[in-house]
Structure formats: C-alpha cells, structure tokens
Design a protein that fits this description.
Blueprint: E1 4-9, E2 14-18, H1 29-36, E3 40-45, H2 59-68, E4 75-79, H3 81-92, E5 99-103, H4 121-133, H5 135-145, H6 153-164, H7 171-183, E6 197-202, H8 210-219, E7 223-228, H9 235-238, H10 240-252
Parallel strand pairs: 2-3, 2-4, 4-5, 5-6, 6-7
Antiparallel strand pairs: 1-3
C-alpha cells in the first residue's frame, strides 16, 4: 500500500497531519503554514483522497502504511478518523512516533455496551444511506453539522466548504471510511500505547463527544487533555493560533 505524503516547511522536527473522513489534506490549510515555521510538515492523504490511488485497503493495513511512510521520531497528529488511524499506527509500531496529537478523536465512533459517549448506530446508518444517495449534498450538510455549537462555526464552514468543490473521494472510499467508523473499536489497544499524547478536543463537539476525549486522556498512559472551550469538531480551525501554540509547546516540552 502506498500512502501519499506532501512535505513542506522547515528542516525542523517532523510533524505529520492526517485528515478525517470526507475531507482531504486541505482540511489543514488554516494551520499548515504556521506549523511549517516550526516543523517539517508531512500532510498525509489517505488512499483515494486528493487524487491519490485507492488500493481498497482496510483500516489496520492503512494505519501500518501511514507509519511506514513517515520518518521515525515523527509527531503524528490525526483529526477525527485520522486520529483513530493515528492511534492504530502507534499501537502497530511501538516507539516509531515521538508523540501523538489526537484532535476530535474517539476510540469508537458508535455507541455500544459500556460506551455511551458516541453516535447512535441508527444515526450512522441514516447518514451512510444519505452519502450513497447524494454524496456532495450530504457532505456539505456534514460540514455544517459538525460545526454546530461552535463559537466560530461560520468561519470554519467557510474554510472547509471550498474543499468539497475540488472533487470528492470516490464513492467506495467514502463508503469504506464509514464502515471503519461503524466497526473499528480501539478501546482495548489504548492502554498499551505508551507514546506521549496530547488530546485536543472541543467541548461543544457534536460528532465525537467531549467525553470521548476525556476517556482517551484518562486511559492513554502518558496523555493530557487540552480543552478548546466553545469549539466543536474542528478546534484547529476555530482557534488556529491556540492550536499551533499548544501543539508546539507540547512537542518542545521534555519527554
């Protein structure tokens, strides 16, 4: 499996950014330049996104391929589904990454016994049917939905909506990502991930509840939680200066 990686920025420490479902590496446009002043930034495009090849790989092989595509010692930052892949990559390649940053991330996207801080399975099923019927319109509504309750919702929607006009991933890619969100459960792997971790979560996130971020910060052995007050699912766009400052401080602190 080949993972597409675009590298920019300084010759400083390596930082990889992994986008979420439905939106490619352009989701990081609002912070990439500022991060590039401090880091050598590797923007990962998941298979089928941003014009990259889709090899039909499943979740676990994709996570391993992300790890294998990045230099040892990289800080791996993943948003949403990208954060789930970051967790799986760190579990699959212990010691490969120097740090993890999990943004709006959860170990399990849908509710289950003992796991209430997630989406109702019926809501996920309804959304999946809507994507299959009208992907472009559904993704436009999706961007507005996951920013509901954000103090900067309009600005975030304005930043993300143009990405949808550049071309959506193929239908099988979208469907496979939704399958991952329905089926992947990383709860058992989390306590074994020893990588120092920063959990960034908006306290108004309607997609991946803040309680999921709290759970990660509690159950990862070396993690701390950065709460973005008034932010929804994209805190790095709602408050980019705070995000860049927090991430840089985390990476520069002694391990």
């Amino acid at each position: 499996m080949t993972i597409s990686v675009a590298t920019t920025g300084t010759a400083g420490p390596d930082l990889a950014l992994v986008h979420g479902w439905g939106l490619g590496a352009g989701a990081w446009n609002g912070v990439a330049d500022a991060l590039g002043e401090r880091f050598r930034v590797h923007r990962v495009s998941l298979p089928g996104y941003d014009g990259s090849a889709d090899d039909g790989g499943d979740f676990a092989p994709t996570a391993v391929a992300i790890a294998d595509a990045l230099p040892a010692g990289t800080t791996l930052c993943g948003w949403s589904l990208g954060g789930m892949l970051a967790l799986a990559a760190a579990a699959a390649r212990p010691g490969h990454f120097s740090r993890l940053v999990l943004v709006g991330t959860t170990p399990k996207f849908v509710q289950a016994d003992g796991w209430p801080c997630a989406q109702v399975p019926e809501n996920h099923a309804t959304f999946t049917r809507a994507v299959a019927k009208a992907a472009a319109a559904t993704l436009t509504r999706f961007v507005m939905l996951f920013n509901q309750g954000d103090d900067k919702a309009r600005a975030v929607v304005r930043a993300l909506t143009p990405l949808l006009a550049t071309g959506l991933p193929p239908a099988p890619v979208l469907a496979r990502g939704l399958d991952w969100l329905r089926n992947v459960d990383l709860r058992a792997a989390v306590p074994g991930i020893a990588t120092p971790t920063l959990v960034v979560h908006g306290d108004c996130d309607p997609l991946m509840p803040f309680a999921a971020g709290e759970w990660l910060a509690t159950n990862l052995p070396h993690a701390r939680l950065e709460r973005f007050a008034g932010s929804a699912h994209a805190p790095f766009l709602a408050d980019p200066e705070h995000f860049v400052r927090t991430l840089a401080g985390f990476c520069e602190a002694p391990r």
